[in-house]
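ok, trying the design again with the full structure, not the truncated one.
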């Protein structure tokens, strides 16, 4: 069995829905057991969230936002040129969905209150509509298909907006709901992004939610692979907007893909890969609009030790420094610093400490820098008064560059090539970190130098 997920740009209009149906038909001919997961049409989820916020604020423009969405879907149905009976049934289903969205928005506007569960219910409407449209197109092509709402079986916690799945409960329910369809030759077209608590309260899976839905189903159904169809030729060795000569990476390990995603690359979110990691299910990233391209495989084990796979970049960072000669040999300074940051709910992306223990540096998102510096100065008020800690400050407008690949630390010459490339460009490195995992070398540079640094490092390994 194979799970295939199509993103919002892949199903963005009638022509693209027809193209996706052609891809599914071609795959089904060679691989009969398919489960399809779909996102909302491009831009629909953002519009639904905007509509919800307008309704909560009492802004009557929510009605126009919903009317625009209704018209967009109606036009798509007209352009699909479905058989009359199929088109009529689809229009009725969609109208029921829009009617429900309107009722909910009216209630929100009347109460000026938007509960997290209702917010998730409204945000996930687009997937319900696109699933029904794609299923109708498949049936019109003679392929048995049925739209299936994932909230009937994808069970999550109640962390609305970014819920986490209960994999074992979902596995049992998904198998009961989907396997009979697959075994009967029907293609289930499943809504991505949405789930429900055990009590049936609607939830959504957050960033990369439809990708996450696909990997959860891969886990639940013991799929041989999960294919993520998007609008790029797989995972790139660098951002092509920065490095025009960036290449598609043929293969990544789970951990390499997770490192890239953590450090800013447009890859599957690390959380998305977890269900497949548990079952060692490979994931393939493909381009809906260039289906002949082999794309990128994400597989359990890394191959090609010492090979730089990618160079990634995160901007809008700040480098926080805690410095003082009195820190030498004093236990607990790092723990107290990181505890103070954690209390603010701020993520630390990179840490570096001098071997003399006279300073600790770490990188956080810039919007949190002022709050973090204030919290640290408060936490170490006595130490600063005694001059054990001399200063705590933030350097803004910095960026993290990560050089990612398996076995980097153990491969002679990798770091030398990186720093030679930066030195040739007269780019100063402000901080360095390399973990014992050997999968990335992280550098901090001034944001003004960051893109040139990425280009030079990429050229050092991809020439």
């Amino acid at each position: 069995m194979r799970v295939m997920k199509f993103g919002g740009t892949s199903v963005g209009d009638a022509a693209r829905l027809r193209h996706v149906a052609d891809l599914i038909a071609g795959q089904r001919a060679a691989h009969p057991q398919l489960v399809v997961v779909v996102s909302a049409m491009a831009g629909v989820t953002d519009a639904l969230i905007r509509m919800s916020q307008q309704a909560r604020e009492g802004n009557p423009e929510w009605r126009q936002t919903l009317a625009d969405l209704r018209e967009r879907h109606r036009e798509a149905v007209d352009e699909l040129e479905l058989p009359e009976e199929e088109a009529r049934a689809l229009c009725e289903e969609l109208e029921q969905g829009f009617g429900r969205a309107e009722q909910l928005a009216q209630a929100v506007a009347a109460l000026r209150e938007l509960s997290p569960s209702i917010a998730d219910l409204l945000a996930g409407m687009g997937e319900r509509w696109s699933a029904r449209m794609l299923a109708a197109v498949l049936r019109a092509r003679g392929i048995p298909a049925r739209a299936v709402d994932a909230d009937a079986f994808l069970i999550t916690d109640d962390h609305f907006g970014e819920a986490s799945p209960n994999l074992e409960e979902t596995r049992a329910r998904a198998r009961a709901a989907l396997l009979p369809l697959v075994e009967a030759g029907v293609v289930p077209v499943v809504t991505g992004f949405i789930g429900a608590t055990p009590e049936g309260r609607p939830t959504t899976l957050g960033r990369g939610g439809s990708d996450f839905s696909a990997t959860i189903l891969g886990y639940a159904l013991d799929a041989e692979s999960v294919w993520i169809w998007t609008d790029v030729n797989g995972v790139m060795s660098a951002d092509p907007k920065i490095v025009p000569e960036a290449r598609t990476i043929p293969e990544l390990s789970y951990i390499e893909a997770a490192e890239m995603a953590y450090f800013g690359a447009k890859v599957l979110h690390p959380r998305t890969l977890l269900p497949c990691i548990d079952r060692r299910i490979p994931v393939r990233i493909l381009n809906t609009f260039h289906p002949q391209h082999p794309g990128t495989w994400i597989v359990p084990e890394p191959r090609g030790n010492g090979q730089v796979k990618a160079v990634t970049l995160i901007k809008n960072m700040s480098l926080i420094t805690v410095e003082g000669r009195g820190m030498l040999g004093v236990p607990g300074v790092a723990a107290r610093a990181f505890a103070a940051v954690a209390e603010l709910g701020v993520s630390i992306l990179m840490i570096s400490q001098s071997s003399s223990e006279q300073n600790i540096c770490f990188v956080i998102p810039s919007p949190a820098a002022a709050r973090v510096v204030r919290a640290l100065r408060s936490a170490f008020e006595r130490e600063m008064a005694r001059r054990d800690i001399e200063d705590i400050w933030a350097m803004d407008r910095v960026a993290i560059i990560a050089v990612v690949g398996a076995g980097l630390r153990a491969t002679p010459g990798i770091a030398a090539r990186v720093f030679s490339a930066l030195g040739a460009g007269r780019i100063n490195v402000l901080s360095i970190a390399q973990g014992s995992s050997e999968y990335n070398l992280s550098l901090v540079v001034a944001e003004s130098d960051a893109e040139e640094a990425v280009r030079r490092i990429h050229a050092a390994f991809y020439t």
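Keeping the full-length input from now on. The domain at 2-231 is CATH 3.40.1160.10 (Carbamate kinase).
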